[in-house]
Design a protein that fits this description.
The chain is mostly beta strands and 130 residues long. Helix content is 5%, strand content 38%. Strand 7 and strand 8 form a beta hairpin.
Length: 130
């Protein structure tokens, strides 16, 4: 099986992932917007055992049980992690088109000019309704 790879802007922090993601989504929450400097963020969620990270990452604990990892050299945010796995941000992949999103979160914050008609699931907030 071929590994899919990616990393930060400067190349100091790299990752390789094996297999398919558990799920792939888009998030419009305020945390993701501010962190990425964009109106939304997209990600693919993998089991921890599927992902190998090299080069070292610093972590920002943005909420209890969830950390966002970034490169200490260039500041690029590359992934988030919790007990459920690792969210690799699409922008960090060497080939960002590999895993198309199927759902979106925090649609209450989605911009009126943004239309994502190919997504199958739309959640006003988190997937669990919170």
């Amino acid at each position: 099986m071929t590994a899919r790879t990616g990393g930060c802007f400067c190349g100091a922090l790299r990752f390789a992932v094996q297999g398919e993601p558990k799920r792939v989504g888009v998030c419009h929450c305020l945390d993701c917007r501010k962190l990425h400097g964009a109106p939304f963020m997209s990600f693919a969620v993998f089991d921890r055992a599927q992902v190998a990270v090299t080069g070292g990452a610093r972590r920002l604990h943005s909420k209890p049980g969830y950390a966002r990892a970034f490169c200490p050299a260039c500041g690029s945010h590359v992934f988030g992690e919790d007990e459920g796995g690792i969210e690799l941000y699409h922008g960090g992949f060497d080939e960002p088109d590999l895993f198309p999103p199927t759902y979106e979160l925090w649609t209450v914050r989605r911009e009126s000019w943004l239309d994502l008609p190919t997504l199958r699931e739309h959640h006003a907030r988190d997937r669990n309704g919170a």
